[in-house]
Design goal:
This protein has 12 helices and 10 strands. It is an alpha/beta fold and 260 residues long. The strands form 2 sheets. Strands 1-2-3-5-7-10 form a 6-stranded mixed β-sheet, with helices on both faces. Strands 4-6-8-9 form a 4-stranded mixed β-sheet. Helix 1 links the parallel strand 2 and strand 3. Helix 1 packs parallel to helix 4 and helix 6 packs across helix 7. The longest helix is centred in the N-terminal third of the chain and has 16 residues. It binds octanoyl-coenzyme A. Octanoyl-coenzyme A binds next to helix 2 and strand 6.
């Protein structure tokens, strides 16, 4: 993998897992434009890297991210913020093909919470706090919060979270289905890695097409989603992994997947 130098994030790999760590500790990992540019580059590098099968996105124990960088936004006007088209970067996060697990501790607020929800699975520490406090600074979520939170927790809970701006705890988020797993703070990253390693053993081509099909459930009608899923299902029958996986099952042995 080409090694790029970053100023606002750290990257590392462990087995077939690519790890991106948000790293602006003095501002609780506020998501500046520079940070988002670097984040997207790192995610796209891991997405292209054949040795990487799953990506983990994390922050520090104190904060995953406390939102978009308010300092950068405070003087924007409708026209100036529209012309900058910052969401083009956010859209590129959505287009990453490999699964992304958010490992979240501390604050995941505003754009931080939206970034978490753009990931595919969420492992939280017991200290994690999720919220959309934009209402407290006179705006609303802009990076998908009204859509993604509502689809996950339903209209009434989403209304309460977004209209009050109050944070919810990791356990509340778990009860609402926002979070996959909650672990003690010293274990949440290990828990995310364990989940990543489990998925990394599967056929990467099946994982990619499954992710693509699941995301379809969110952006069209149910019928469109079902048709899309079916197409990807049929397509997998031209892969060696499908043959190997089904044969291994019938021969009562462990499958070896190659991604072809
Ligand atoms: N942006 C910029 N700086 C921040 C942010 C932020 N979102 N959050 C914290 N900081 C800074 C603080 O200003 C402070 O800096 P300094 O030491 O220079 O004063 C430092 O981080 C530490 O923060 P606090 O002293 O406030 O720490 P506390 O432990 O007292 O409080 C909180 C922690 C509760 C998280 C508090 O910092 C807070 O409320 N932060 C703002 C949360 C918020 O409103 N987030 C939503 C922002 S709007 C948004 O995300 C819209 C997304 C739309 C996408 C836009 C793309 C262009």
């Amino acid at each position: 993998m080409m090694t790029l130098t970053y100023r606002n994030i750290l990257t590392s790999t462990e087995d077939q897992i690519g790890i991106v760590t948000l790293n602006r500790p003095t501002v609780l990992n506020a998501l500046s434009h520079d940070l988002m540019d670097e984040l997207v580059k790192a995610l796209e590098e891991f997405d292209k890297d054949e040795n990487i099968r799953v990506i983990i996105l994390t922050g520090s124990e104190r904060a995953f991210a406390a939102g978009a960088d308010i300092k950068e936004m405070s003087d924007e006007t409708t026209i100036s913020i529209m012309n900058k088209d910052r969401f083009a970067t956010w859209d590129r996060v959505r287009n990453i093909k490999k699964p992304i697990i958010a490992a979240v501790s501390g604050f995941a607020l505003g754009g931080g919470c939206e970034l978490v929800m753009t990931c595919d699975m969420i492992v939280a520490s017991e200290t994690a706090q999720f919220g959309q406090p934009e209402i407290n600074i006179g705006v609303i979520p802009g990076a998908g919060g009204t859509q993604r939170l509502t689809r996950v927790v339903g209209k009434h809970k989403a209304m309460e979270i977004i209209l009050t701006g109050r944070s919810i705890t990791a356990n509340e988020a778990h009860a609402m289905g926002l979070v996959n797993r909650v672990a003690p703070v010293e274990l949440y990253l290990d828990e995310a890695k364990a989940l990543a390693k489990e998925i990394a053993k599967k056929s990467p081509v099946a994982v990619k097409l499954a992710k693509e099909a699941i995301l379809k459930a969110f952006d069209g009608s149910l019928v469109e989603g079902l048709e899309f899923e079916r197409k990807n299902f049929y397509m997998l029958f031209s892969s060696e992994d499908q043959k190997e996986g089904m044969r291994a099952f019938l021969e009562k042995r462990q499958a070896t997947f190659t991604g072809r």
